[in-house]
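quick one: 5-amino-5-deoxy-1-O-phosphono-D-mannitol bound model?
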Amino acid sequence: DKGNHRHFMLKEIYEQPTVVGQTLGSYLDPLAETVTVPGLCFDPKALSRITLIACGTSYYAAMIAQYWLEHYAKIPVTVDIASEFRYRQPVMTRGGLSLFISQSGETADTLAALRHCKAEGQITATIVNVAQSTMAREADMVFPTHAGPEIGVASTKAFTCQLAVLAALSIAFGVARGHIDQTEQAALVRVLNEIPSRMSEALQAEQQVASHAADLSRARDVLYLGRGADYPLALEGALKLKEISYIHAEGYAAGEIKHGPIALIDPNVPVIVIAPKGPLFEKTISNMEEVIARGGKVILMSCKEGIASQGRTAGNSIEMPAVHPLASPLVYAIPVQLLAYHTAVLKGTDVDQPRNLAKSVTVE
Ligand code: M6R
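yep, here:
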């Protein structure tokens, strides 16, 4: 049932504050201001490495988690696409955790990688949205997301719920490994707790986001730029647009465009710059200026202060609430999803069932 919404995708975008709140709720104790992982079957202190493996949007969630796990838990992290990981000869160390991320829990490549890692003696865990799935049955440990059934082929709420679990795990492992003290833990729990409200505020920008869809719908190519944990979000933005609007789009690490992609810039290529105010803001803005200097048409996603500092207006920006860097990929996922959605609606594509795609990819 789509409720009052025209598509399942839009309904699922709007469910995010609720389902992310539910997912975080299974890890956070807001009163004690602590993060706890129920039933953990390994000691985070003893982990030599975490290998994150997934496909598609779930792979981008894994890429974002790499920044968090390195920063907060100081664990060496490897991230790979399941179909690549499985068919090379990855060197796995003793005491390694292999973590498989999947909405469906049935993706053939991810499942094959899980079976391989298990046979190699790794500890296996999975973040899945379907509790009765094959991956949930076969892994040593399951971290469920509580997104509820996701019908739209383009993943939205499953992605942000995966991020919610990964953020909670990163903090919990950081505490267990002695890198986060009680005060810092309390502060981070408050950040996580506020994410659902910040996501609700982000949803209020829907009309502003929609006002940019006409420009995008006329484009042949679109670029998305971001830095740090918002770089994988740029990749996710490009994937979302490709999947449902059939417009060619690419995501790049903002610092990388001068190494080639800047040659693509002209007034017909919209460039979406994801630049929350934070430690990487100035660097991202200097990359944005390189694009503007070459005639690029930029849409800046930032907070009020970030947008004002660049003298930009509603016509060439999308305003988000001010957020802590840990929260930004979850909050900025919303305008990224809405931009793809409204562009696809203008193009008249089948948003919930895009051509050539299936919800669950069960062939390798
Ligand atoms: O069920 P999974 O999370 O394992 O699926 C992985 C990908 O097939 C999936 O994320 C795909 O890329 C989506 N269509 C993205 O919107």
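The chain has a mean pLDDT of 96.
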